[in-house]
Structure prediction request, 161 residues.
Amino acid sequence: MISLNRIIVSSMVIIASSIITVASATAFAADIVDTAVSAGRFNTLVKAVQEAGLVSTLKGKGPFTVFAPTDEAFAKLPAGTLEALLKDKQKLAAVLTYHVVPGQVMAAQVQPGAVKTVQGQMLTVSAKDGAVMVDSARVIKTDIAASNGVIHVIDAVVLPK
Prediction:
């Protein structure tokens, strides 16, 4: 005979599993743009993506790997650089798409070498002093999952050659 306690415990396990499944699905429901917005440290990047008209692209199916400069990274640009980019949508789009690689590349899959960006030029991934570098930017956080790709946080804005 099955005890009432066993039924209650079994029911609780099923409910807990369902909650975890729903929470997991919700955690990955946000696309790259919404994930960047909710992080709160990519305000300049999000503004630039909006100004360049790339929101619908980065909300698209993807998958994309985005090397996302923080607000502090944008602040390191020489005076007037960001303002000039925001006025030149074509150049701004080129800089932003240089930070994007087609496909979803998680940190464990990253290999040193040249990687073709959505912008068309090659981005150089390397290891230096135990850190992963993307051109001259250091990767400071990896594998922020989104529904259409992944974000890796970098400490500098990388510029196409």
Q: What stands out?
A: The beta strands are 64-69, 100-102, 113-116, 122-128, 131-134, 137-146, 149-154. Residues 11 and 46 are 44 Å apart (CA to CA). The chain is about 40% helix and 25% strand.
